[in-house]
Amino acid sequence: MALSANERERYSRHLLLPEIGEAGQEKLKAARVLVVGAGGLGSPASLYLAAAGIGTLGIVDHDRVDLSNLQRQLLFDTASVGAGKAVTARARLQALNNEINVVAHAVELRATNALELLGGYDCIVDGSDRLDTRYLVNDACVLLRRPLVSAAIHRFEGQAMTYIPGQGPCYRCLFPESSSAVAPNCAEAGVLGVLPGMLGALQATEAIKVLLGIGAPLVGRLMTFDALAMEWREFRFKRRTDCVVCGTAPSIKTLTDSEATCRTEITGKWPRFKPAELQQLLQSSGGAPAKTPLLVDVREQHEYATGHLAGSVNIPLGELGQRLPELPTDSAVVFICRSGRRSRTACELAARGGVRSVSDLEGGLIAWAAAIDPSIKVA
Amino acid sequence: MNTVRVPSPLRDYTGGAARISASGTTVAEILANIDRDHRGMRFRMIDEQDRVRPHIRIFINQREVLSLDEAVAPRDEIHLICALSGG
User: Fold this and answer.
1) Reduced to 3 states, what is the DSSP secondary structure of residue A227?
2) A186 annotated active-site
3) Domain shared by A277 and A241, yes or no
4) Fewer CB within 10 Å: C terminus or N terminus of chain A?
5) Domain endpoint, select from A228, A257, A286
């Protein structure tokens, strides 16, 4: 795919590099890269990939731009708030480089569309904000034999790795399994706005290296970054022969949505009390055992010790499965946690375990402290 | 004493500290001693069957830990790594 005169000028600094040159730039022009998630990571990654001259750049995101995104998601500006991310990103990237073709996929990546979507690209850059999506993307890349550049962030920390089929371990070899319940995202935990800039730029670098076959990509190497300590570290890990997707006898041969992904569709299945509603319920029951719901605080012991609702009992979420027999099956149970996330998982666990009336406190103790009792300490 | 690097999702247990000290000649001993000072932290990393939870990885210096019985030398640094989800 020959370069035009305009392209030669635009990419002249690349053409000077012996590792890229005209042949390499032509490879980038012929390449198709999909960025999953137009968020903190996807913004810098896609901006640099567009600037680098990736011929076809896909952006998949079904979300809309929120004002709180602008602290780190540089694809968007104030006027973008409320607009669809994928379409807005396409306009921004196309304005940056009109020589390339930017494709907006304004859909939610699911098991039903992942293979078709990812299969249309040569390399996948994962900047999603959910662990469930990370596993879906990883599994699709393994099944499709597509390289994957993965990164994730949390507060001041980031981590990144690259998977190349047949050359090293996949994301599941590193973390075989997880759920979003144990790994809070940026909306819950907060993140330094600059941090995804560091990791997203790293992802673009890795994608270019993989496409050109130059340098030493992060295959079998987990790169971690601590912005507070300003430290990059590297950890070596190997392919697991028992990996459920890339091992010698994989059990994952087709894609399925994780339970957590499905769960997002049924979050309305169990009632949630707003703090004022729960307070009213507790007051109206007047302490009568038959009417008073059992308040179960599913945070860890040390969090409970810092502060908790009077009358609540502490069963950490990790112990709930084993301690379900302690819960009443004939009266109501209200689960409580810090922010209302673990309590949702608790609702599901308890309901599956036969507890008939489960509910939880929306917003958790943080919301309770804000609306009802500021004196309560939340760890 | 060994230095243990704590990932941010587990720093609720360490009062926000990114590095703590713990002694032990094996990974298992170090984790037990961590839990003595930071109660509940071990359970976030190790399940009831003494297996490392699948969203956690432990490294001695840069080397991945495959068994909790692995020996730890006095100056080894232990790195606890947690799967992050933010993007």
Assistant:
1) coil
2) yes
3) no
4) N
5) A257
Considering only CB atoms, A42 lies closest to which of B13, B44, B87, namely B87
The answer to whether residue A330 is domain-embedded is yes
Which residue of the set A173, A186, A246, A347 is catalytic?
A186
* Domain co-membership, A137 together with A248: yes
Question: Is position A347 annotated as part of the catalytic site?
Answer: no
At residue A265, the pLDDT reads: 39
Q: What pLDDT is attached to residue A184?
A: 59
Pick out chain A residues at pLDDT < 70: 179-188, 258-269, 286-291
Given a contact cutoff of 8 angstroms between Cβ atoms, the answer to whether B36 and B29 are in contact is no
Quick check: B64 and A238 CB within 8 A? yes
At A164, which CATH number? 3.40.50.720
Q: Which CATH class is domain B2-82?
A: alpha beta
**Residues A230, A339: one domain?**
no
Tokens standing for residue A282: 């507790």
DSSP assignment letter at B37: H
Whether residue A175 and residue B62 make contact (CB cut-off 8 A), yes or no, is: no
Q: What is the pLDDT of residue A65?
A: 94
Amino acid identity of residue B58, one-letter, is: I
> Do A54 and A105 reside in the same domain of the chain?
yes
Interface of B with A in 20-39 (CB under 8 A): 39
The pLDDT value recorded for residue A262 is 43
The answer to whether the pTM exceeds 0.80 is no
Residues 6+ apart with CB under 8 A from A362: A272, A273, A274, A275, A340
Instruction: State the CB neighbour count (10 A cutoff) for residue A270.
Output: 18
Residue ranges of chain B whose pLDDT lies below 70: none
Give the domain range for residue A313: 270-371
Q: A96-126: per-residue pLDDT in tens?
A: 999 999 999 999 999 999 999 999 999 999 9
Residues A304, A338: contact at Cβ < 8 Å? no
Q: Which of A257, A286, A321 is the last residue of a domain?
A: A257
The answer to whether position A19 is within a domain reads no
